[in-house]
Amino acid sequence: MREFVKIRRDDTVAVALKPLFAGRVLDVDGTRIRLMEEIPQGHKFALCRIGEGEAVIKYGSPIGFATAQIAPGEWVHTHNLRTGLGEIGAYRYHPGPAGERQQERTEFFWGYRRPDGRAAVRNEIWIIPTVGCVNDIASAIERRCQDCLQGTVEAIAAFPHPYGCSQMGDDQENTRRILADLVNHPNAGGVLVLGLGCENSNIDVLKGYIGTYDENRVKFLVCQESEDELEDGVRLVHELAAYAGRFRRERISAGELIIGLKCGGSDGLSGITANPVVGIFSDLLVAQGGTTILTEVPEMFGAETLLMDRCANEGVFDQTVSMINDYKRFYGSHGLPVYENPSPGNKKGGISTLEDKSLGCVQKSGFAPVEGVLSYGERVTKRGLHLLAAPGNDLVASTALAASGAHMVLFTTGRGTPFAAPVPTVKISSNTALYEHKRNWIDFNCGSMTEGKDSGGLGEELFRYVLEAASGKRVKSEEAGFHDMAIFRQGVTL
Asked: Domain with 220 in it: what CATH number?
């Protein structure tokens, strides 16, 4: 088992792959480094003398500046490292060489073909409240309709949320767009839209956002107009299940898959194991003609130029610049700095600054060109790698990925989390200890990279796993019966 890793040739720090005790002498590229103190797993130690105010280099890029002189073998973390991030940035387009093209091949999964031609990986009945006032009704209907799980209907899921009324401006718009996106999602073979009747985002308003719909697939119920909304809701769900149950899985090209990329509860190994493996997966899928979507804009700060230089053209570059700077303005409008992101769990796991976190985060995007930038609530229409404007919050960002059309979300983590997006959410651990401790949460382990397993081989394994999951293999959060959603809130509540 390797004990540490120096990620790039020019790095001035290395990362411990296991706890390293003080006094250990390590050979790093022919130089002997004596550790001055204990280095926890995922944490960094200096490879050379770093002067006060000098940049600390990891992933070949600055992750901040030393706040004091750091000696070789010294622990490098929040006590002696500060962020170098500022506010609004000016950027220039410097397109880099295209990433190495993956070997061409044709892969397939077994999915559902919807009447509008779109592919789906699940055949579920979704109950979507227009307003939080009817959340309990939606959940009660879900409980009473479990007898609909017959034939090809795979789940009955309600999606409670606290919004749909007492909102203004962008918040109201965000709610309507996200709810409409979920109504139109192909993983839902049938949808019951459940309204109260007096809310701002009532059913008649929401229909304008949903657009054309199949009356067999989408049903509406206004609770204030129903004498017994539970009985009416149950009846409508049974009608939807009878319709959805007619669909059968068929062989579909992997190039029709849309996969969201997200990380949360990251540790110091996330950017070394799990995220690069997801990046390999992304490149493999894009080579098939498939689509991947990278989000959590605040966790691009400090690594954004790596994405900008991969933009397919100047138009996409300009959109990426606007996305980054708009989020920085959003922080500034609330009087908040852009760099207060790493959580206590991130720091405990070895992440010191937002640049440190971001440079690991963007590894999930692989090396494919960035083909497009999506606004919050916008559905993807082109193939290839896309960036999505959404915050870093796990549930908000994962819901946004589903709303943009992702059939599934790949979620890397070093700390672990049980939540699920509206679509299958594959949990990928950065370390083996988490995988072994939380097997009821974690679907795929990338910690084996620290034990000598090849990242390319793991990327291929993950690609195969995703095809299996797309073909009906349930992931851990599905086995637990979890379906969650959250909508981005920015303003006041009336």
From this structure: 3.40.1400
